[in-house]
Design brief:
50% helix; five-stranded parallel beta sheet; 9% strand; single chain; Rossmann fold; 129 residues; alpha/beta; 5 strands
């Protein structure tokens, strides 16, 4: 696995707002066994939408590895929430990335930047090389 994607990456993609850099990261994830937390599937598919949009969103997860909750991810989530106020979905996603040692691709970097051991990649801000 190469990257773990936050829910907002999928939402930006579905809304046509991901941009070329973000699309390249998503393609990299598809080619290199990228992943997402089960909570992202719940967040993206768990709101009312027309059947065609729901099908499009469901297909987006194909080709990526869904990371299920396990005891280690739950324990890491609890630790993160004890350290700082963080929403449960964000804590679960961060804990999944930490557990797997993967960078987290998210545009929501502000909510995660305090987790020093978590590498963040903003898909809407291409790095200057």
């Amino acid at each position: 696995m190469s990257l773990l994607f936050d829910s907002n990456v999928f939402i930006y993609h579905l809304n046509g707002a991901l941009g070329a850099y973000g699309q390249s990261l998503l393609k990299q994830g598809l080619l290199e066994g990228g992943a997402f937390s089960v909570i992202s599937r719940i967040e993206v598919l768990g709101f009312p939408q027309p059947p065609a949009e729901l099908e499009k969103a469901s297909r987006l997860f194909e080709g990526l590895n869904q990371i299920e909750l396990n005891a280690e991810i739950v324990a890491q989530t609890i630790t993160l929430r004890q350290l700082r106020k963080i929403k449960i979905p964000d804590a679960l996603i961060a804990a999944s990335a930490l557990h797997l040692g993967l960078p987290l691709v998210t545009h929501n970097t502000r909510d995660f930047q305090w987790i020093t051991e978590l590498k963040l990649i903003d898909p809407l801000v291409e790095p200057i090389l």
